[in-house]
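Hey, I'm writing a tutorial for new members on how sequence and structure tokens pair up, and I'd like a real worked example in the thread rather than a made-up one. If someone can provide the structure for the chain below, I'll link this post from the tutorial.
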Amino acid sequence: MERIAEEADVPPTRISFAIALRLIRDEWMWLAGASLGAIPKHLRRLREEVKRFILPLRRSHRRYPRAVKIKISSYPRKRPKSQPGPSSTLPQATTSCSCLK
């Protein structure tokens, strides 16, 4: 791919690796049954076809800035319940007991 990128006068990272790999894999299967004299012609055609997969230039700016997304849970949040303070309306315990006398 480096040689193909040199011929096309682009950096190697601008050629789509996934699509080029798929094309090379398919050609490899077809070349297994081809005669030895036909291989150079197939390789030249393969190089021309890979040049079609040159990617456009990368944009220098983002359309939307990066941001951390908030994870949304499907479960309700467990919030602390408010505890009653000492001035609540609960009855006070008595300290006198008639059974101890």
